[in-house]
Amino acid sequence: MAAAAAAAVGGPQSPQPELPAPGAALDKAATAAHLKAALSRPDNRAGAEELQALLERVLSAERPLAAAADSEEAAAAGGGGGPGAAEEEALEWCKCLLAGGGGYEEFCAAVRAYDPAALCGLVWTANFVAYRCRTCGISPCMSLCAECFHQGDHTGHDFNMFRSQAGGACDCGDSNVMRESGFCRRHQIKSSSNIPCVPKDLLMMSEFVLPRFIFCLIQYLREGYNEPAADVPSEKDLNKVLQLLEPQISFLEDLTKMGGAMRSVLTQVLTNQQNYKDLTSGLGEKACAKKSHEKYLIALKSSGLTYPEDKLVYSIQEPSAGTSTLGVQGFAGATGTLGQLDSSDEEDQDGSQGLGKRKRVKLSSSTKDQSIMDVLKHKSFLEELLFWTIKYEFPQKMVTFLLNMLPDQEYKVAFTKTFVQHYAFIMKTLKKSHESDTMSNRIVHISVQLFSNEELARQVTEECQLLDIMVTVLLYMMESCLIKSELQDEENSLHVVVNCGEALLKNNTYWPLVSDFINILSHQSVAKRFLEDHGLLVTWMNFVSFFQGMNLNKRELNEHVEFESQTYYAAFAAELEACAQPMWGLLSHCKVRETQEYTRNVVRYCLEALQDWFDAINFVDEPAPNQVTFHLPLHRYYAMFLSKAVKCQELDLDSVLPDQEMLMKLMIHPLQIQASLAEIHSNMWVRNGLQIKGQAMTYVQSHFCNSMIDPDIYLLQVCASRLDPDYFISSVFERFKVVDLLTMASQHQNTVLDAEHERSMLEGALTFLVILLSLRLHLGMSDDEILRAEMVAQLCMNDRTHSSLLDLIPENPNPKSGIIPGSYSFESVLSTVADFKAPVFEPGGSMQQGMYTPKAEVWDQEFDPVMVILRTVYRRDVQSAMDRYTAFLKQSGKFSGNPWPPYKKRTPLHPSYKGLMRLLHCKTLHIVLFTLLYKILMDHQNLSEHVLCMVLYLIELGLENAADEESEEEVSVCGPERCHDSWFPGSNLVSNMRHFINYVRVRVPDTAPEVKRDSPASTSSDGLGSLQNSGTAQVFSLVAERRKKFQEIINRSSNEANQAVRPKTSSKWSVPGSAPQLTTAILEIKESILSLLIKLHHKLSGKQNSYYPPWLDDIEILIQPEIPKYSHGDGITAVERILLKASLQSRMNKRIIEEICRKVTPPVPPKKITAAEKKTLDKEERRQKARERQQKLLAEFASRQKSFMETAMDVDSPENDTPMEITTAEPQVSEAVYDCVICGQSGPSSEDRPTGLVVLLQASSVLGQCRDNVEPKKLPITEEEQIYPWDTCAAVHDVRLSLLQRYFKDSSCLLAVSIGWEGGVYVQTCGHTLHIDCHKSYMESLRNDQVLQGFSVDKGEFTCPLCRQFANSVLPCYPGSNVENNLWPRPSNKSIQDLIKEVEELQGRPGAFPSETNLSKEMESVMKDIKNTTQKKYRDYSKTPGSPDNDFLFMYSVARTNLELELIHRGGNLCSGGASTAGKRSCLNQLFHVLALHMRLYSIDSEYNPWRKLTQLEEMNSQLGNEEQQPEVPILYHDVTSLLLIQILMMPQPLHKDHFTCIVKVLFTLLYTQALAALSVKCSEEDRSAWKDTGAVKKNTCDAEKSYKVLLNFVISELSKGKLYHEEGSQECAMVSPIAWSPESMEKYLQDFCLPFLRITSLLQHHLFGEDLPSCQEEEEFSVLSNCLGLLPTFYQTEHPFISASCLDWPVPAFDIISQWCSEMNSFTERHAEQGKALLIQEPKWKLPHLLQLPENYNTIFQYYHRKTCSVCTKVPKDPAVCLVCGTFVCLKGLCCKQQSYCECVLHSQNCGAGTGIFLLINASVIIIIRGHRFCLWGSVYLDAHGEEDRDLRRGKPLYICKERYKVLEQQWISHTFDHINKRWGPHYNGL
Predict the structure, then answer these.
(1) pLDDT-derived band of residue 1202, with 50, 70 and 90 as boundaries?
(2) pLDDT over 80 (residue 1853)
(3) Could you say which of 1194, 1554, 1557, 1569 is the most buried, measured as most Cβ atoms within 10 Å of its Cβ?
(4) Which of 1396, 1405, 1504 is nearest to 1445 (CA)?
(5) In the predicted structure, residue 315 carries a pLDDT above the cut 70
(6) pLDDT of residue 1228
């Protein structure tokens, strides 16, 4: 109810209500008209006063709202009257007054006519479905409502549909946000020119009434607000107030919808300062106004805001209202004092004079920014309304009202300024809010409408210092959660970082503010202001530094962490959103030379901030060990701006780089991250839990990599290109902790690394160097090349869907940069590098999506392992890429072995980065490479193929990037001689490769083998001296080298005084003690890199002298070096390629290679292995062998399982099944032998230990869905289309049964038809058998197994122990032989009469139930199962509930259902013949035994046995006895197929073939007579009389009984005795077809009538006697089947015009029996001719069942259904669904439509499909299957243009039907295989 705040209409002065009650409406209208007239006069003061008085009275806010809210109980007791009534009265008054006496509706219509708005401006809230078109959008936030989207033309555009997260508004018509070509038809034409002017008097009243109304609303808001107490959240109270105010706000909202004219009045009211002042100053004489004003001031104070007057002396001049409505006055005081407020001229504050004053490191409360944070002054209604909107945490209604006004341009500007003015207050409220998520969404809902418009953003930036406000507010916000940084120097650190555990970061509370900031930075004009303003840049860098080094990880060395913190999510999100996104926004405006200045600014302040940071954390040159942070946003800002400067702005790199010392510091932390990545992957951080792995993955993951790892690597590349290469290389190996490993000695001591981690760390170090040296992302690649490289890398790892590719390729760099994935270049690159693989359907389940796979030439030329390694989140993806590469090489015949990663040529380096290549030509690297090659050759420990691969890669990189020539001859003169000079003479790799090294001095542990071998001579000093000169290299220590270099650099810049004070490198972290004694030994080496490579070639190929220089045979090779034969291959190829390149680069090398090859190389001496090593080697070998064994076993097992699955499980391809009969098929009379799949024993099934078939029983209504027309029904997609189920098979059978039950005896009716068209029980098996006792124990074990299965053991469900197919019962196998037809002598020559007698006798024997054996118990229990499978309503059709006739009907109908369904699975006919489609899986034989056993318990009274009626002539008088009761069903109305099943199931089993044939022959005569009768009714009176004559002539010929003409004539004449043909009135003629019947068409009719019976009978014969079905053409199906059933005499030659009557074999004279049958019918048609006819004409031609036909485009379904109301609860469902079988619209999971604890979908699945439901979920585009008590998600039949599903419509791309998938779904429905094919089932607990 509305709040009746003010409504108690009088107040103090007027106790009695003055408003007249009875004729109120009239009076109001009259008063309003009178006032309007008064106000229209020129002198309208009197009118105005009168109106004011009236409004005072109507809207007086005397009765405080708080009271209204508090006295809830009172109000509740008062019922409908009380507060609300008066409230509504007030609204009524307002409406009347606005309309000025007229009707309110007419007034609305009149105002709408003057709507000049060319904008749509429709505002929507969360969950609304809207569209976004990237082709038409200028701003990335552009969105359209569905109506505007469909009215516009977006064909071929890049658009998508989306569900709004936070709400939004339609931009149609706004050319600031989107291109005009995309406007819809409504908003293209409207321009304000042709709209007439608004008449003055129309809106005159509104201008008077609305200010009071809004003021009244504000008073309510003031009254209702109570400061929440500290302990209790006050949401409830606030919500109460808001609920009470609902009608008022809705009223305002309705006003905004009246169009532009009314909006401009509202704008005037909301922004008019005079009105506001008059009404709200609180200076009036009224107590209430004063009180209200006080409440307002209290609210301001409590929000930490001051009303400026409190602070400032009144005498100070306010800025004149003209400049801006803004009350953020403090801004003017840029000097920091609050006194000088006179400079109201806000613009010049942003100029250069602000520079000096604004630089600061910390925000102290004295600076001028305080005013941004806590001064607010409201000058208009709009401002205070927004204030309360924020106070009340953005109620949805208020937000919608404020946004609905936006199409008014004047309002838009005023509102934006007001919003900015309240920005700080919004932040404070947001931080305190309990519902920060909802509030964030509402804030963004507003701000995105304001800041997406560039013109507006620019204006607000200039006039209201938007940027200052935003940055300051962000800074303040983060300041509340700062902690001291523990990075580097824990005790003395002065650096503060954000605490990622705080709610502010954890819940992303900052995102609305950050997203606004990103939004305004996307506008060039705003971003330029930001980049020019030094003060802002300083503040911003300050803000970024809060994130520098956050979420620090410390490596756990002893215990595993107790609690794994998940703060890293918050940290990565914060860096991405708060630092990286704004950075990309700024970068997008630095694209041209003219913007150089901006880059210089950013780089300058970034470096300053970095220097401050290094100082704050006390960093010298060594990072603290075992610490890593992944967050270095300052480094990344610096890196990205450098990259942009070189790439786009042609800046000289050196001009923006700092000195060497700073570069050294800059490289340390990014390098630390790279080393830590390797450590994490080597499991060195395993005690820190899984989250550290999560961080390592997130760091390289596609959404983060271009803001994290890429800038880091680029920064390292820049440092490497400018620093001393030896220093850099040694730093790398030191960071990766593998320095000690790089020794020639076979043993070494590593003080910082455990042995098991050495290998992977060495691999990590080398891989990092390869990436560093070969990556060109920022060093010269164009955007298109980058895109292509990224795409190739992703495709090489795995085939990808289009959407996952879009997701995996880092956006370049953010959506606003112009290259949006999905834009032109993405598609064109994709089509050049990949082929599309259309979605495939594997029968048996998993449906594939459309995939892209790399083209062959991409594998051949573009596969780049370096890029793949850089981009893999999971290490297994690298392996996957290599496996796919291997497969390609094998397939294309390029290489058959195990290839190595190929070497890929790189894009040329940008000249600025040439220095990077010096790394490849420095002695330190060469020494490392030499050492590693030697160690690999000597088989030292901890070296892998990967190490060798990377070593060769580096050598090859060095050869490709040759050093500058002059360094070749460089003589090392300068400086002290360093130890590595004794290894190599120069620094050029080409010459160093051939340099021979004879001796090396190594330091080894005492235990090493080298020590023992040392010759005593070498210790003498002179010996050493001489050795020294002959090329002994000294001991080489990387660390010492690096320290020396560092000192040099420091000394070089030591003229800066403070350097002297620097402490010597902090040695406190070197590991104390524990190092073993090292002694020096000298090794004889006598190798060069070239000789090592050649020996490696021998080693890898396993042959001596395997390398032969290719140029000796073919000199061409040297001229044309690019030889494809070398591009793919393994290590041998790589070595050959390197040697070829080396010889190409220098003749010397070529000669030396030839020399080495000439010397026959002695074999490498086998290494002596110590016992300990042997042990580990053995262990390794044993492990390897065990692993191989296990693999072999697994593979064998898998192949076994696969072959088994192939034979047992081709569930979905019935056509090509090979029949695997359950039983053995030898024709000797043997007992059937069954294998039990549980205990494995074979044996017959016996009475006391029966065997059973594993079966699944399910109720099915598939048969009932057959229709008699070929066209499948369509899913309704408009209100007109509806589906009515009259023509379904189930409906027709229902009608027939109820018709029979009306006129005939119930028990007889239940024998005349079959049921089970709906809810029939279908039995299927996988063909496996088990002992029933074994099965019981199996079920017990399942019951005790607590694993959650997808099925319910209590309901008897289980999976077949062998093939895991779903099942729920066991069908006992009847003991006895398996080939019944051999029990009897083959053709018996008994006459048909004898057989008829035998049949009658056999049926007459009562079928006593066999003695109580295990078998009989099982038979009974399975019968119970079958009954319980379906619902009671599908079993009980009798009028007397529980009558035995019901059971009887149900049992033979089960047989009928299974036969009919098998017929459908065969396609509706038996033309294909062959064994049963489910040959190996048919269980009909066993089912028949069970049914027969139970049916023989009910003996049919021999009086009524239809068999008598079929085979004996009765005396006429017996008819007279039963007049008084209801008659029996005439035999001609019986369903013949049902009769067949009754006759056969009443016989003792196993059945004799002769008896079967006899029964079929007898029934065929009845069927044929029915066909003739039906035909006679079909044709016209003339036809009938014509046939009567022709037939009469032939009646006495010899084969009259086999001529259909004679028989037809006889039937007609017999039936004419009754009234069947009478009353053919006019309405009848419509039904009867007027076609002339030719003999051919009559023959065809008769055959078609009999065919369904023949098909079912043939199937039955096939199952009972195991005879194969012949295959045939469709036209000869009748003759083939009748032949097969023995209806045709064997000697009968098929004449061409085949006559169906020739199959007849009458047991008694035909004319007599026909006459008897017809007279039965005549006695019925005497009374009910109409019904008699209806019961006779049966339409037996049912088409196959189909699901509904779906439209091509998913959007048609979605648009119609997603807003459709449910017919049951008349609400729009949250999850609408539609049944694909019958088209019913249902609420999924809707509690609204729940009945007896069943939700609507479950209920519908029971009614429509007897427990099987197929539903399309409208909002998700997926199909859900309900089967009994389980459900599963099936998948989607709608795919997008790239062959992908779009579950939940997340991407919102257009979807199109995939016919193949729909066919698969339909096939599974018809074949009842949902349970077998779909694997993921879960219980639905009736909740769907």
Answers:
(1) low
(2) yes
(3) 1569
(4) 1504
(5) no
(6) 44
CB 1701 within 8 A of CB 1597: no
Contacts of 67 by beta carbon, 8 Å cutoff, 6+ apart: none
Mean pLDDT is highest, among 349-353, 707-711, 779-783, 1530-1534, for: 707-711
Cβ(926)–Cβ(992) below 8 Å: yes
Q: What are the φ and ψ backbone dihedral angles of 1140, each rounded to 5 degrees?
A: -65, -45
Give the whole-angstrom CA distance, residue 172 versus residue 183.
5
At CA 193, angle to CA 188 and CA 194, rounded to 5? 85
Are 964 and 936 within 8 A, CB to CB?
A: no
> Distance between CA atoms of 1001 and 1084, rounded to whole angstroms?
9
What integer is the mean pLDDT of 1124-1128?
74
- DSSP, collapsed to helix, strand or coil, labels residue 1623 as coil
**916 vs 355: which has the higher pLDDT:** 916
- CA–CA gap between residue 1128 and residue 1012 (Å, rounded): 44
CA 1867 to chain centre: 26
**Beta-bridge mates of residue 1824:** 1815, 1833
- Both structure tokens of 1442: 């529980």
Those residues whose C-beta lies under 8 Å from the C-beta of residue 1716, and which sit 6 or more positions away, are 1513, 1514
Structure token pair of residue 1523: 């007049």
**Integer angstrom CA distances of residue 751 from 625, 755, 1001, 1074, 1821:** 13, 10, 20, 8, 60
Alpha helices for 938-1016 (secondary structure H)? 945-960, 989-992, 1009-1013
Q: Quick one: DSSP state of residue 229?
A: P
Kindly give the interhelix angle for 755-774 and 709-722, rounded to the nearest 10 degrees: 80
| Signed CA dihedral, 1341, 1345, 1347, 1348: sign only | positive
Residue type, 983: W
Rounded Cα–Cα distance for residues 540 and 529 (Å): 13
Task: Report the C-alpha gap between 1836 and 801 in whole angstroms.
Answer: 15
Angle of the 260-271 helix axis to the 235-256 helix axis, nearest 10: 130
End-to-end CA distance of the chain: 34
> What is the pLDDT confidence band of residue 1821, given thresholds at 50, 70 and 90?
very high
- Concatenating the DSSP letter of every residue in 1368-1403 gives -EEEEPPSSBS-GGGSS-SS----HHHHHHHHHHHH
DSSP type of residue 1671: P
3-state percent helix, strand, coil for the chain, nearest multiple of 5: 55, 5, 40
Residues 6+ apart with CB under 8 A from 1879: 845, 1350
Beta-bridge partners for 1254: 1370
In the DSSP assignment, the letter for residue 211 is: H
DSSP strand pairing (129-133 vs 159-163)? antiparallel
CA 978/CA 974 separation, integer angstroms: 10
Does the pLDDT value for residue 285 go beyond 60?
no
- Extract the tokens encoding 541: 């860098």
Q: What is the pTM of this model?
A: 0.82
- pLDDT average, residue stretch 537-544: 94
For the chain, what is the mean pLDDT?
78
CB distance 786 to 777 below 8 Å: yes
Q: Is 808:868 a contact under the CB 8 Å cutoff? A: no
Alpha-carbon separation of residue 1629 from 228, 1268, 1575, 1731 (angstroms): 83, 21, 15, 16
What was the pLDDT predicted at 50? Answer: 74
- What is the C-alpha to C-alpha distance for residues 1250 and 1489, in angstroms, rounded to an integer? 14
3-state secondary structure of 1137: helix
For the four alpha carbons of 1285, 1288, 1292 and 1297, in that order, the dihedral sign comes to negative
Tokens of 1425: 């199962």
- State the pLDDT at residue 1383: 43
User: Among candidates 918, 965, 673, which has minimal Cα distance to 773?
Assistant: 918
Mean pLDDT of the region 1704-1721: 84
Task: Identify the DSSP state of 703.
Answer: T
pLDDT at 593 over 70: yes
